[in-house]
Amino acid sequence: MKTAFITRSTLYTAPGGDTVQVEQTARGLAELGVDTEILLSNQAITYGDYDLLHFFNIIRPADILYHSKKANKPFVVSTILVNYSEYDKNHREGIGALVRYLPGDGIEYIKTMARWVLGRDHLASLDYAWKGQRKSIMEILAKTSMILPNSESEYRRVQQKYQSRVRYAVVPNAIDPALFKNNPETKKDSQLVLCVARIEGIKNQLNLISALNNTRFRLLIIGAPAPNQPDYYRQCRETAAENISFIGQLPQEDLVPYYQSAKVHVLPSWFETTGLSSIEAAAMGCNIVITDKGDPREYFENEAFYCDPSNPQSILEAVERASEAPNCEKLQQKILNQYTWKHTAIQTLKAYQLTAAT
Q: Between vectors from CA 267 to CA 263 and to CA 268, what angle results, nearest 5°?
């Protein structure tokens, strides 16, 4: 079997958790004998070379509409259904006042068209311009062979939002256990806190900074600024006190010593499907502080410290509890047993086989 992974055109220029998911899933499938090629949505694609198309990010339906129609081949979709609407409506400056009364799909439509008009991204399908976000996604769900959400919770959100009972298989996000290998002999610094994520409004670093400013904690923010949110990054830098440092984007292997040293990793996002860096940190023995919005409870259950992203005091209190608690070995073992890229590749291949059998 030869599979084309077709991804957003900015996968490498604006890397995120989906970049890791795409690359690691492709690598794992290759080890299982599946010939997989990663292609950007703005590339010319010779569809006849592939048996199956695998798309990512259903909230970018224009790409999927265009290539799935043109190829006329079976396809699956890793949905990665992030809900930006709460952040966009209530906390994003500028656009928030304009879109406050629109549904989430309407906001995504405006953002997609704005990226195209401003030259920040391409618009693969002109059909999308008149169909809109919701109708485009519903058409994709009606035609796809299967969707591959990162959790049962994500599938339920797809089902509820789009009234779709499309066939699905849960394919979780994961870690590389050979890379993220904790050394229990290394003492954790109870005052060292990490936040590994792209610096953008939905990741909520600004409220995290407000929460930890001038406290006993040393906060390291690791990640690149989102290209389309320079003002947010500037505001974060200007707000940060001396106990907060910014470190740029790092390759995964360079994250290991930071995870190894820190007692706490915090991701107080306005929404998360998983929180990939939280899984990595948990595998390295960090205690996890994470948002209460989205799907993380399916991964972390009662073994993480949850916070309200709108409330800096809630974030601080969760960090305090996490820093004082023993390292959660139960969560660490769960990640190592259930959430590895090998497991992800096996589940993906099973989904491909089900698709081929129908």
A: 125
Inter-residue contact 62 to 42 (CB < 8 Å): no
Nearest to 218 by CA among 195, 196, 234, 200: 195
Tokens, residue 226: 């989102």
What pLDDT is attached to residue 89?
66
C-alpha–C-alpha distance, residues 96 and 318, integer Å: 28
Strand ranges across the sheet with 35-40: 35-40, 2-7, 52-56, 75-78, 146-147
Nearest residue to 6 (alpha-carbon basis) of 58, 348, 84: 58
Q: pTM for the complete prediction?
A: 0.91
Contact criterion met (CB below 8 Å) for 138 and 79:
no
Res. 113 pLDDT band, cuts 50 70 90: confident
For residue 234, give both structure tokens: 């500037």
Asked if the model's pLDDT at residue 56 lies above 80, the reply is: yes
3-state secondary structure of 8: coil
Cα–Cα distance between 119 and 6 in angstroms, integer? 21
Q: How confident is the model over 1-26, as pLDDT tens digits? A: 899 999 999 999 988 899 999 999 99
Q: At what angle do helices 104-117 and 127-143 cross, to 10 degrees?
A: 130
Alpha carbon distance, N-terminus to C-terminus of the chain: 15
**What is the predicted pLDDT for the residue at 99?**
58
Q: Check pLDDT > 90 for residue 295.
A: yes
